[in-house]
Automatic annotation (TrEMBL):
Signal peptide: none annotated. This is Triosephosphate isomerase. Homodimer. The lineage of its organism: Bacteria, Pseudomonadati, Campylobacterota, Epsilonproteobacteria, Campylobacterales. It is an enzyme of class 5 (isomerase). NCBIfam families: PRK00042.3-2. Involved in the gluconeogenesis. Catalyzes stereospecifically the conversion of dihydroxyacetone phosphate (DHAP) to D-glyceraldehyde-3-phosphate (G3P). CDD domains: TIM (cd00311). It comes from Nitratifractor salsuginis (strain DSM 16511 / JCM 12458 / E9I37-1). Keywords: Cytoplasm, Gluconeogenesis, Glycolysis, Isomerase.
Length: 235
C-alpha cells in the first residue's frame, strides 16, 4: 500500500521540514509496511528520509535552460530527487498542459530513470456520460505513455472528487480501477477527497494499491491517521 501526500501550493520550506521530522517520528515508532511519499512545493524540495520518499509535484522536461519559472533535472538532482508527479488534473486544466507536453515530460523523466506517479482522471461531464465515456477518456490520457515502465505508478483521480470532500463511491472506484487494471500492471492509486472517514473502505477495494492525498495530508498527524485503519500498529 502506498500513501502519497501532495501538498500542492501549501507549506513552506520550514514547515515542510518540520512536517517530515514529525511524520518520520510517527512512522519510525509504528514501523508500517507502507511506502510513504511526500510531494512538497518546489521551494521546499529536500532529500528523502529513511521512510519517506520526497518527490517533485512537477518538473520541466530538460536538464536546465531558458524556461522561466520552471525547474528541471539539475535542480532535482541537487536534492537527490528521483520521483515526480506528472499529469495532475490541476496542471492539465489550470496550467493548460496538453497530452503531448505531458507525454514529453513522461518520456524525459522515464529516460532519466525517475519513479513517476502518472495521474489520470475524468471531469464530471464525462462521468455523467457513463462508464464507456469515462474509460475512453482515461485511456486517451495514456496516449504516448509507456504503461509498462517499471517505475510507473498510476494515480486515478476523478476531477470532480478532488478537493470537494466527496470521494467517488467505492463501486465507481472499483469499476474504474478494474478497467485500468486490464492494461496497467503497475500500482494504481486512488485520489480525490480521501480522508480518515473513508480510507478503510477505499483501501480494501480490489486494485487500489494506495492513495494520493491532498488536503487530508497537510497535517502530519492527520496523514498518519489515514494509515492506522489500514494496518493498525502492532502492540
Ligand atoms: O493530488 C491529490 C489530489 O488532487 C487529491 O486532493 P484532495 O485529497 O484534497 O481531494
Amino acid at each position: 500500500m502506498i500513501f502519497a501526500a501532495n501538498f500542492k501550493m501549501h507549506h513552506t520550506r520550514q514547515s515542510t521540514t518540520e512536517y517530515l521530522d514529525r511524520l518520520e517520528a510517527l512512522l519510525e515508532r509504528a514501523e508500517y509496511p507502507f511506502k510513504v511519499m511526500v510531494f512538497p512545493p518546489a521551494t521546499a524540495l529536500q532529500p528523502s528520509r529513511e521512510w519517506i520518499t520526497v518527490g517533485a509535484q512537477n518538473a520541466y522536461p530538460a536538464e536546465e535552460g531558458a524556461y522561466t519559472g520552471e525547474i528541471g533535472l539539475s535542480q532535482l538532482h541537487e536534492f537527490e530527487i528521483d520521483t515526480v508527479l506528472i499529469g495532475h488534473s490541476e496542471r492539465r486544466q489550470i496550467l493548460g498542459e496538453d497530452q503531448e507536453f505531458i507525454a514529453k515530460k513522461f518520456a524525459f523523466y522515464r529516460e532519466h530513470g525517475f519513479q513517476i506517479i502518472y495521474c489520470v482522471g475524468e471531469p464530471l461531464e464525462v462521468r455523467e456520460q457513463g462508464f464507456e465515456a469515462v474509460a475512453e477518456y482515461l485511456w486517451e490520457q495514456f496516449d504516448d505513455i509507456d504503461i509498462d515502465y517499471e517505475r510507473l505508478i498510476v494515480a486515478y483521480e476523478p476531477v470532480w472528487a478532488i478537493g470537494t470532500g466527496q470521494a467517488a463511491e467505492p463501486e465507481a472506484i472499483a469499476a474504474t480501477h478494474a478497467e485500468l487494471r486490464r492494461r496497467i500492471k503497475r500500482p494504481i492509486l486512488y485520489g480525490g477527497s480521501v480522508n480518515p472517514t473513508n480510507i478503510a473502505r477505499i483501501a480494501e477495494i480490489p486494485d487500489v494499491d494506495g492513495v494520493l492525498v491532498g488536503s487530508a495530508s497537510l497535517d502530519p498527524e492527520k496523514f498518519h491517521a489515514l494509515m492506522i485503519p489500514v494496518a493498525p500498529p502492532q502492540v
